[in-house]
Amino acid sequence: MAEEVKKMRAQLEEDEQVASFMRGLRGQNLSDELFASSTVKLRLVEVRNMFHKEALPLVYSPQAISAYWGKRPAAVFTRIFQLLGVAGGFLSHLAGDIVSKKLKENEVARAIELREIVTSLGPAYIKLGQALSIRPDILSPAAMTELQKLCDKVPSFPNDIAMDLIEKELGQPWTELYSELSPSPIAAASLGQVYKGRLKETGEPVAVKVQRPYVLETVTIDLYIIRKLGLALRKFPQIATDVVGLVDEWAARFFEELDYVNEGRNGTRFAEMMRQDLPQVVVPKTYAKYTSRRVLTTGWIDGEKLSQSTADDVGELVNVGVICYLKQLLDTGLFHADPHPGNLIRTLDGKLAILDFGLMTQITDDQKYGMIEAISHLIHRDYEAIVKDFVKLDFIPEGVNLNPIMPVLAKVFDQALEGGGAKNINFQELASDLAQITFDYPFRIPPYFALIIRAIGVLEGIALVGNPDFAIVDEAYPYIAQRLLTDDSPRLREALRYTLYGKTGVFDVDRFIDVMEAFESFTVAAKSGGGEALGGDMASLGSLPSTSRDIILRTTSKDLPSGQMHARVALGFMVSERGEFFREFILDEVVKGLDALSREQVARALPLLGLNRIDTILRSMPVVGVFASALPFMPHRLLPTITAITEEDELVLNNVYKIISFFVEGTPSFRTIDRENGLEVLRLLRELQPILPNISSKLVPEIVSRFASRVVARVLREVFL
Questions:
Q1: Strand, coil or helix: what is 199?
Q2: Which secondary structure element, helix H or strand E, spans residue 198, and what is its range?
Q3: Confidence bin at 624 (pLDDT 50/70/90)
Q4: Is residue 383 part of a domain?
Q5: Are 342 and 32 spatial neighbours (Cβ–Cβ below 8 Å)?
Q6: Which one-letter DSSP state was computed for residue 330?
Q7: Residue 355: count of CB within 10 angstroms of its CB
Q8: How far is CA 46 from CA 55, 267, 646, in A?
Q9: Dihedral pair phi/psi, residue 257, rounded to 5°
Q10: Taking burial as the number of CB atoms within 10 A of a residue's CB, which of 172, 183, 496, 648 is the most buried?
Q11: What are phi and psi of 198, to 5 degrees?
Q12: Does 430 share its domain with 500?
């Protein structure tokens, strides 16, 4: 699958427009500068509170904002004139394009103008432009590419204002709190600027972020104006985009970003969620005592941007980053929604540090499980289920007739997943089909999914710099396999069952091995960046208890030297505590396998013991022969039926041999696995004996019980039916 994704990506990116869009999605269009160009002028709204009993809301409320600015028409008109003065040339050019019907032709030129204007208009427009830059359902690739170049870096504001704000927010002069602060900010953005300092109380190095004055006033007045414009545009049905809904959806998260207490709390929660599973992921400590709504103090992290690092372990840290973001997406649900390259740091000791937790989004359980279910359905090309998944995941609104869309999606996915690979894909036809789906049906990119695309895109962009063959699917599928194997939620249990059994309900041994191999790949990635040395839970998946440390676990199928027992990591997981759910899940397949295997062994043994001639012997005995001919349950009648190998048994036996071959490949017993000559079961059990005690006390009674029930049921069926 990964190879096909790489080929498909290469062919798609032969189109310059697509390639440019992908560069932007990966964050490669962003500037790494810490400060804005000297030509950038930031225009903020400085409004004194004339009504002292009133204040702007600290949580997004369109009604409260409207009430506040509705009483300040002079300030609103001043801002409108300011906006028109800056954007007048752009609007006149846009109007000319509409009149001359050259809107599409001049799209890129207008996008460049818009980006330059937005940069100077302040935080609301910069952040809104960045949000739109990853919405292909709203903007064209050309327009998105330009907006992705939006730089959040603006000129710093004076130090004396920053120091006064620290004193006002924290209640003491900065000299009483910090033994030192850098004489000027080390970075400046639209919302605030950062100083490097040291706590006076403990001497610990810290980063101190101070919010820019008048940010709340500027943001809310701009939201008020944009929202008024959106309400007016609703009168024109030919304008499909709901500006009001878009602004409200985005503004709620943006207000959270203005609250540094909330940002610090997010960072602390995020660190707690990663500490046990991924200790190699570092989050700066938040010092709540030195944090307020407009001042944030966190631990200082020394390192370099992952995107600029030339260290040998960058690839491993990207793998850790992919696992980290997939864990947020499919497990914790608290998703870091601002993953540009400047927020991903390689620490001096080779860990991955993640910064800036102001902009977060919450992924619901329905969304988490829905994405995994959709992948399971895609694996089996169950397009009817996939279309329903799209509705659950909010790609298609409720109530839309789904029947006409299924044949089109089936054609698109079948072509993309065709075994012949990318060379068999007609990309023009594929693009045409996708465009037609978007045109004919109300497809949309949910906001949470746009953020997901951006996060994964940034990680892929960093990885591709050092490894052109990197494919995100190589890392994503193993994580999903791990989730399926270890999560005991009912929906994921059903998703695992569907993955292995499909719609037919028949166990797919090749899919089972594929999932187990993906799980082994995950364990390798989870050990990257020091995960194993730090004792991370994910790095230890598949590890055996201390009583079995004489067994070497591995993820390859190559022959290994004798003298010590070798077993696959997948087998280690199967017999570990974390594998308990999965063992129970496939217990019926184990019993089926033992049943078929035992009957096959008995069938092979009968000729050696002469029991294949029991019918002739019994019939030769005068008295017994009479009963032998009459009674259906005599041995000579039961043995052939009880030991007979059916077509279903043949399938089960082939599965058993494939699974055993997978688990013990590279061991001495591997050479004894042969359907023609049988399996040296006792030898295999002897080699696996060191790990069998870990599960025998729990599993053997249950297996024996189910096995006995199966045998008795078959005997009774043969006797009476």
A1: strand
A2: strand 192-199
A3: very low
A4: yes
A5: yes
A6: I
A7: 18
A8: 14, 31, 84
A9: -70, -25
A10: 496
A11: -145, 130
A12: yes
For the purposes of burial, counting CB atoms within 10 Å of the CB of 616, is it exposed (0-12), middle (13-18) or buried (19 or more)?
exposed
147-174 pLDDT, tens digit each = 766 655 667 889 999 999 999 999 999 9
270 contacts 276 by C-beta, under 8 angstroms: no
Q: Average the pLDDT over 91-95 and give the result.
A: 83
Please, what is the angle between helix 107-120 and helix 73-99, to 10°?
170
Q: What are the pLDDT digits (tens) for 681-705?
A: 545 555 555 555 555 565 667 777 7
Number of H helices, E strands in the chain: 30, 13
Residue-wise pLDDT for 561-573, tens only, equals: 444 445 577 777 8
Sequence-separated (6 or more) residues with CB below 8 Å from residue 142: 17, 20, 107, 108, 111
Do residues 49 and 103 both lie within one domain? yes
Report CA 200 to chain centroid distance, whole Å.
41
Radius of gyration of the chain (CA): 32
Q: Do the beta carbons of residue 479 and residue 522 sit within 8 Å?
A: yes
Same domain, 601 and 636: yes
Distance CA 181, CA 200 (A): 11
Would you tell me how many other CB atoms lie within 10 Å of the CB of residue 652?
22
Please give the positions annotated as active site.
Answer: 338
Burial annotation 149-182 (CB, 10 A radius, 16+ → b, else e): bbbbbbebbebeebbebbeebbeeebeebbeebe
Q: Token digits for 702?
A: 């249950």
Residues 108 and 256 grouped into a single domain: no
Number of domains in the chain: 4
**342 DSSP 8-state letter:** G
In 3D, which of 601, 457, 516 has the Cα closest to residue 145?
457
CB 183 within 8 A of CB 218: no
Within 13 Å and on the Cβ side, how many CA atoms surround 538? 34
How many other CB atoms are found less than 10 A from the CB of residue 529?
31
8 A C-beta contact, residue 341 and residue 305: yes
Top-confidence residue, 183 or 618:
183
Contact predicate 484/495, CB 8 Å: yes
Q: Do 230 and 93 sit in the same domain of this protein?
A: no
Alpha helices, H only, 417-471: 427-440, 447-466
Query: Residue 383 half-sphere exposure, CB side, CA atoms within 13 Å?
Result: 14
Burial class (CB within 10 angstroms; exposed 0-12, middle 13-18, buried 19+) of 310 = exposed
Range of the domain at 34: 21-149
Tokens of 110: 């207008």
pTM higher than the cut 0.90: no
Nearest to residue 297, comparing CAs of 323, 326, 271, 260? 260
Q: Are 281 and 315 in contact (CB under 8 A)?
A: no
Q: Is residue 331 part of a domain?
A: no
Whether residues 648 and 567 share a domain: the answer is: no
3-class SS of residue 242: coil
Residue ending a domain, among 288, 305, 322, is 305
Nearest to 122 by CA among 93, 79, 164, 81: 79
